[in-house]
Amino acid sequence: MAQLAAVVFDLDDTLFDHSGSAARGFGAWLSSIHGPATPELTAAWFELQDRHFNAWRDGHVSMAEQRRRRIGELLELIGRPPVDQPGLDALWRDYFASYRAGWQRFDDAEVALELVAAAGLRTAILTNGPEDMQHDKVEVIGLASRVGPVLTAEALGSAKPDPRAYAALCAELGLDPATILYVGDDHHLDVVAARAAGLRAVHLDRRGTGPAGEPHSIATLHELAGHLA
Fold it and tell me: Does the record carry Isomerase as a key word (predicted)?
């Protein structure tokens, strides 16, 4: 097996606590326009996020349009009358301000970067999020000076699981795929797709809901050390 040269991380729900930040932001925003965020409404918000963000990822809608659709469908769920496009955009900006106010990294993100540095390996981030937002996240959570290049789907023109995203990552680092270990929380996007592109991969299964047969799975980034040999 080729000697490991770099560890590349997914960002959302790997180093950055997207789900926690989004839940807190949604709760604060919804209370300002409707009322408390029930578990059912919070679950619905995340379902809308996944469905419409994936439509953007797959090239079916623009980033702005997927955001409008999320807001518009939520308004239907809470019995609010429909609003025009500027109104949808204004509501998104209000939600995003609440979301951004709660941005934070996972406690084990620092440990992971220390482990990688101690092993003498390079780092990078490959994320499916939009360019400006993902760089902003890395800056706000204090990792901008701790990791190598931050590569986004928007800048690359392709998103995970497209093998071109992983090929662009390897080209950016100037490394053979077999010398890169990819670490992420989404088994399909971050593990299956990475391996199909020739990289090594570790599944970060924080909730214990991943495939039972996955041989390279960790529950926390504290466990990453065992995969850096």
Answer: no
- What's the CATH number of domain 6-17+104-227, 3.40.50.1000, 3.40.50.360, 3.40.50.1970, 3.20.20.150? 3.40.50.1000
Question: Of 99, 121, 128, nearest to 186 (Cα)?
Answer: 128
CB atoms within 10 A of CB 62: 11
In sequence order, what are the residues at sequence separation of 6 or more whose Cβ sits closer than 8 angstroms to the Cβ of residue 105? 15, 16, 17, 141, 142, 143
Which residues of the chain are in CATH 3.40.50.1000 domains?
A: 6-17+104-227
- pLDDT of 1 above 80: no
Q: Say which residue the tokens 């040269």 belong to.
A: 5
- Computed from CA positions of residues 191, 194, 198, 204, in that sequence, does the dihedral angle turn out positive or negative? negative
Q: Locate CATH 1.10.150 in the chain.
A: 18-101
Residue written as token pair 């009322």: 35
Q: What is the pLDDT of residues 164-180, one digit of tens each?
A: 999 999 999 999 999 99
Q: What is the mean pLDDT of the chain?
A: 96
Tokens representing 130 are 């939009």
Does pLDDT of 229 surpass 90? Answer: no
Distance CA 221, CA 110 (A): 9
The answer to whether 126 and 6 are in contact (CB under 8 A) is no
